[in-house]
Amino acid sequence: MTIEMPARVLDVERLARELGNWRTASSSGPVYRGLADGIRMLIVDGRLPVGARLPSERALAEALRVSRTTVTAAYTQLRDAGYLLARRGARSTTALPATPSAPPTPPLPVARSTWPTPHSPHPHPPC
Length: 127
Prior knowledge:
It comes from Mycolicibacterium litorale. The protein is mainly alpha-helical.
C-alpha cells in the first residue's frame, strides 16, 4: 500500500524572499536564466523541498515585478533540466534530475592490439 502525501504549496511571497537578489547574482545573460539559476539553487540546497508546488507563472511574475514571459522561460529551462515536473493545468512541482547535468565525456580511443590476429601477416608478436 502506498500513501501519497499532498504536495506542499509554496507561498509566492516566501519564494520571492528566498530568491533574494537573484537579478544581480547572474548579471550577464538573459533575465530568465538568472531566475532559473536562483530557483535551481534553492532546490539543490534544500530551501525548496522536492515535490513542492511552485506558484503560478502569473503570481510569481507579479511578485518579482517581471514579465510573465520571463517566468515562463525560467520554468521551461528548469523543466528541460529536470528540476521541475509539470502537468497541464496543474502547478509545477520541484524535482531533482535523475542524473546530474554533466558535460558528456568523449569516448576513449580504442588501442590497437599488437598481438597477431588470424589475418595478420606476422605470426609472432613484435619484440
